[in-house]
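agent: user wants the structure for TonB-like protein from Gelidibacter sediminis. delegating to structure tool.
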Amino acid sequence: MKPFLLVFLILLTSCDYFQSKKVSTEQLLEEEIQAINWNDVDDYPTFADCEGATTNQEKKVCFENYLHNLLASHLGNQKIIVTDDVSDTVVLKIHIDKKGKFSIKNIDMDSMTQAQIPELDSILRHSFDSLPKIYPAIKRSQQVATEFSLPVIVNIN
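agent: tool returned. relaying tokens verbatim.
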């Protein structure tokens, strides 16, 4: 009888091993959020002209080249007169929201460039007035807002 009682007690205490431990949904969500790299997107923002690009890097290069070409075309049509030579790298802080709306958040330029070309800020902002539709960046199958820097080299002699 004692062996049966002993086996019965062992079986009763071992039932704890068969219970699954429940993890709260908040804890699972927190672990998942921490595992996500928020500084990178699955797909970069693109234009319709960049749809042929297959890899993420190709899409990024196509997008940046499109912006550079549009900007160079617009700046090439401007008559900018300076008293001294200007050689500067102007950095545009660009924001694209999750609906594909393009905006320039900030333009960083040297004070000498600003003094020589006071209208450069508005010229750069108006360069992108004729942008075609932008498809926003994708992160985990969701459209997301993105921000990035676009350097522009200004050389005027």
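agent: one observation worth passing along. The longest strand covers residues 86-96.
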